[in-house]
Q: What sequence folds into this?
């Protein structure tokens, strides 16, 4: 037989046929599933492009095939490692990748092994194998390993060894974290902003800017500039993708004519054409793509005289790509555009199939083309909870906010059947409206980008208001979210924290309870939830929550913080301290655990150790106002009033709306004999939160010390109506009535104070005041209650 001008042996004939069939990259990928002999012939085809002498009759294949068998081994191992990483089989991935690197040492394989180590929580292993690498990818992985090992200096050096930071937005974000933990606030802010400029969807960078108090307006950060950058990035990716597909189309069309001359159609008696098996190089190739993926094969002979028409369709038209977990590539997005019909960007070419083959594989094409809607519009069809007129100028009511969560389950049940039907019925419409190979619709792309950025604007605006402690504004912003977004665990946690900062613990308890019921596996924010139960003195619920969290994850610091709050509520400060220290062992950068440790040490009157804990918390987060407040209370108990004033002042600069901080700041000013400033601070605290009884109590105490008894009595009588069960209020009233010589009312209030079960120390003081009612003021020694 004469092919290409010279006589070929039977092995050469099979090789030429496979080479002609495997010109396109997609056919090569399909032939990789064939037995070893077929893969060897396929690899020999690659060699002919670089070594034309390989096609000569005198060429010997064995020595050349060894090199390409090794290349095929490398590809196989690398693919297996990637598959193990996606399936969370980290130990198996490490084992195979170590074999891969030993057999084929290269920088790419070294990076793959480092990824395996980092995925398996072995940053020390990644650190040692990557040390000294110079490529950008290796430097980023090395810097990440150093960051995990708390080697911030080496991590910074690895990222800044060249002018360009490796990793793009991720590299700038990592460098920002390094600067933040190193105490270089301005540099970290700069890096987080650069990360956002590289990738507007880098939400964590914006969240860090919010925590640093340097975040810009969300409408600007996620505005027109961000939209243009996202559009440019997505369009460039689509162009590259379409160019690659166009090359495949040209190759496929060029090879289609050659395929018809090589494979000839003959009918085989006794076999259905759909069930016909094609024998190739000792393997049976099933026409069904699903059977072919299962890898069922039997050794048999090669029959050149009975080629099947099905084989032409199997090799010339590969099955459509299927996606695990219904996750589509980034270049293929599906968006709803304000109630319009759904549009798709389809990248596969329209293959020319036989009529019977088209009918047989329609389900496979539908499975490949079906997409999951990523974003929903907030138009007239979406269920958005609007404000009532009474809520337009204030904090939204809890019932209206939780109403969103209550309606969702019934609406999801009603719409689930409709959504399935819509998805199925829209497939044919999408095929007709957007045939394969058509260019993406720019309107759909821009609408999708607009939807994403509008969502981030709302979330970013609410998050920024919350971390600036504008809690009422944050609650109003979160009200703008759709039901589906509002019902997520993250948003409910933000709403609950806003109520906590407003000291509205009852509403905070309702929101946190709802969030925990919807996502019992989520532990983020559960430390704050346990603090809410602590303030409400819900000992039984707090204990149950702590046990539940530990059962979910014993290695979570939030679980141990909940346990510590439970023991602290029971006045077992030693046990609470052990729980909080356990949380610190699990996460040394968990700021709240350090602060809670300081609170317990202050309760044990170990003020020196408490101060260390507070300062450790501030070294992690300088805007953690609870630590500044704890330092101020420590100095106040030690009668270091000037130091206490400084700590309270810093805490007040961070959270200017906290009436509790204002109260204790006023006490520190009063103890320093700055009474006018103290009274102004108490008035400011009352305006900030009229429900806080501390501000009125301390104002009355300052007025009594200044001798203004009538104003003090007015404040206390008003306070007694709002807080009738506070023994300290009745005791202070008795003391003032004694000063104005109204002994009957003094005795009555002292008795009421004793009936409310005050602390033992307060009981002793109240009884001493009652015994000295008739003693002149000049002869008695007054003690503060």
A:
């Amino acid at each position: 037989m004469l092919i290409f001008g010279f006589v070929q042996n039977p092995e050469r004939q099979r090789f030429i046929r496979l080479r002609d069939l495997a010109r396109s990259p997609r056919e090569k990928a399909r032939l990789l599933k064939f037995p070893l002999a077929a893969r060897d012939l396929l690899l020999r085809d690659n060699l002919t492009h670089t070594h034309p002498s390989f096609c000569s009759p005198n060429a010997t294949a064995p020595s050349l095939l060894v090199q390409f068998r090794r290349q095929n081994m490398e590809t196989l191992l690398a693919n297996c490692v990637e598959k193990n990483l996606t399936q969370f089989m980290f130990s198996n991935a490490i084992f195979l990748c170590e074999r891969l690197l030993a057999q084929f040492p290269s920088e790419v394989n070294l990076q793959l092994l480092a990824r395996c180590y980092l995925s398996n929580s072995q940053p020390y292993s990644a650190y040692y194998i990557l040390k000294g690498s110079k490529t950008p990818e290796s430097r980023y992985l090395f810097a990440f390993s150093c960051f995990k090992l708390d080697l911030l200096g080496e991590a910074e050096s690895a990222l800044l060894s060249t002018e360009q930071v490796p990793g793009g937005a991720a590299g700038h974000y990592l460098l920002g974290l390094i600067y933040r933990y190193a105490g270089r606030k301005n540099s970290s802010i700069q890096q987080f902003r650069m990360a956002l400029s590289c990738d507007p969807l880098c939400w964590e960078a914006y969240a860090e800017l919010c925590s640093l108090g340097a975040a810009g307006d969300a409408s600007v950060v996620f505005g027109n500039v961000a939209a243009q950058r996202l559009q440019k990035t997505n369009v460039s990716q689509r162009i590259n993708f379409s160019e690659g597909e166009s090359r495949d189309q040209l190759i496929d069309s060029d090879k289609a004519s050659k395929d018809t001359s090589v494979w000839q159609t003959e009918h085989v008696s006794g076999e259905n054409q759909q069930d016909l098996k094609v024998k190739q190089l000792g393997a049976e190739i099933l026409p069904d793509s699903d059977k072919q993926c299962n890898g069922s094969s039997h050794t048999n002979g090669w029959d050149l005289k009975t080629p099947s028409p099905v084989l032409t369709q199997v090799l010339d038209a590969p099955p459509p790509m299927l996606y695990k977990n219904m996750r589509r590539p980034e270049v293929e997005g599906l968006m709803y555009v304000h109630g319009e019909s759904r549009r798709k960007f389809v990248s596969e070419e329209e293959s020319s199939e036989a009529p019977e083959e088209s009918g047989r594989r329609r389900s496979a094409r539908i499975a490949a083309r079906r997409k999951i809607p990523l974003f929903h519009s907030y138009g007239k069809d979406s269920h958005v909870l609007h404000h009532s007129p009474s809520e337009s100028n204030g904090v939204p009511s809890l019932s209206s906010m939780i109403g969103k969560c209550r309606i969702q389950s019934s609406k999801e049940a009603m719409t689930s059947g409709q959504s399935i039907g819509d998805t199925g019925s829209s497939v044919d419409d999408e095929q007709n409206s957007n045939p394969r190979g058509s260019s993406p619709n720019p309107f759909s792309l821009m609408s999708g980008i607009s939807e994403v950025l509008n969502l981030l604007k709302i979330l970013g605006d609410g998050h920024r208001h919350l971390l600036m402690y504008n809690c009422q504004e944050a609650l109003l912003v979160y009200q703008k979210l759709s039901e589906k977004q509002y019902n997520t665990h993250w948003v409910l946690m933000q709403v609950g924290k806003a109520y906590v900062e407003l000291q509205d613990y009852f509403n905070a308890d309702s929101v946190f309870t709802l969030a925990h019921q919807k996502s019992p596996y989520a532990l983020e924010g559960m430390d704050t939830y346990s603090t809410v139960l602590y303030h409400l003195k819900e000992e039984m619920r707090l204990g149950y929550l702590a046990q539940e969290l530990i059962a979910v994850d014993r290695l979570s610091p939030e679980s141990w913080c909940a346990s510590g709050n439970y023991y602290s509520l029971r006045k077992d400060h030693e046990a609470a301290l052990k729980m909080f220290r356990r949380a610190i062992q699990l996460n040394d950068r968990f700021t709240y655990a350090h602060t809670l440790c300081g609170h317990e040490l202050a309760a044990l009157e170990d003020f020196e150790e408490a101060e260390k804990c507070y300062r450790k918390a501030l070294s992690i987060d300088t805007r953690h106002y609870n630590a500044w407040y704890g330092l101020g209370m420590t100095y106040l108990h030690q009668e270091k009033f000037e130091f206490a004033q400084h700590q309270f002042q810093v805490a007040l600069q961070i959270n200017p709306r906290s009436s509790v901080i204002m109260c204790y700041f006023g006490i520190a000013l009063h103890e320093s004999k700055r009474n006018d400033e103290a009274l102004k601070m108490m008035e400011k605290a009352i305006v900030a939160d009229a429900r806080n009884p501390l501000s009125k109590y301390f104002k009355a105490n300052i007025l009594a010390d200044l001798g203004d008894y009538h104003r003090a009595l007015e404040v206390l009588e008003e306070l007694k109506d709002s807080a009738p069960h506070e023994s300290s209020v009745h005791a202070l009233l008795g003391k003032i009535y004694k000063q104005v010589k109204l002994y009957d009312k003094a005795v009555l209030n002292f008795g009421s104070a004793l009936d409310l079960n005050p602390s033992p120390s307060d009981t002793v003081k109240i009884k001493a005041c009652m015994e000295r009612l008739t003693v002149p003021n000049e002869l008695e020694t007054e003690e503060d209650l």
About this structure: Residues 523-619 form a domain with the Serine Threonine Protein Phosphatase 5, Tetratricopeptide repeat fold (CATH 1.25.40.10). The first strand starts at residue 2 and ends at 3. The first helix runs from residue 10 to 21. The chain is about 65% helix and 0% strand.
